[in-house]
Amino acid sequence: ETGAVLQAYLHRTEQDCRALAYEGSRVRLCKGAYNEPEEVAWQDRHDVDKSYVRCLKVLMAGEGYPMIATHDPRLIKIASALATRNGNRVFFQTPDPLVSQDANGKQDVYEWTPSGVSLISSGRSGFDSLSLDSSANGNDVFFATAEGLDAGDVDESYDVYDARVGGGFKKVDQAAPCVDSPGINALPLSS
To answer: Are 144 and 158 in contact, with CB atoms under 8 Å apart?
Structure first.
């Protein structure tokens, strides 16, 4: 699945949101980080925030799958309120501990639903956890963490995990050596 990332600080973004809010679309909305001229982008952070909210309203009211990219607690609350009206889920990352299990002082991944906030990453890692993406139906959220959440993961490298509705891990076959690349193992793709 592919999607688009839109930067709310650009003057054109609200129109782009309208064009991309169709069924099956996946749009991640961020504030924007590049130094663009005022003819192209909002310069004042309050104007950027107002644009972000306008764009968020368009995306949340549309038929697509909006994704929120912000650490701003105020914008997360606004996104949560808009999601409540539309019955959506919101996945996000924040360094703020929103539940008691989040005790690491690092960035962690959360899910917001109308019933409340849930911690997706463990809240115990010594490193930041990162929200990467989610499935179109919202039943899977993909995140990266350096914490070994599987018993077989013993290094401190970042790995990508799929947090699934209903939990658990998909059974995979034993890794087999790649024929053309000695020393590299691969897992067969399974449905």
So the answer is: yes
Query: What integer pLDDT is reported at residue 177 of this predicted model?
Result: 53
Could you report the per-residue pLDDT of 8-29, keeping only the tens digit for each? 999 999 999 999 998 888 899 9
Residue 22: which of 69, 70, 62 has the closest Cα?
62
Provide the Cα torsion 82, 85, 89, 90; round to 10°: 10
Which of 63, 48, 57 lies closest to 79, judged by CA?
57
Rounded Cα gap, residues 188 and 142, in angstroms: 20
- Here the tokens at position 37 are 């001229």
Cα dihedral sign for 145, 149, 150, 154? positive
pTM (two decimals): 0.56
Q: How confident is the model at residue 190 (pLDDT cuts 50, 70, 90)?
A: very low
Q: How many beta carbons lie within 10 A of that of residue 75, not counting itself?
A: 20
pLDDT of residue 185: 47
Whose structure tokens read 């590299």? 184
* Rounded CA separation 125/97 (Å): 13
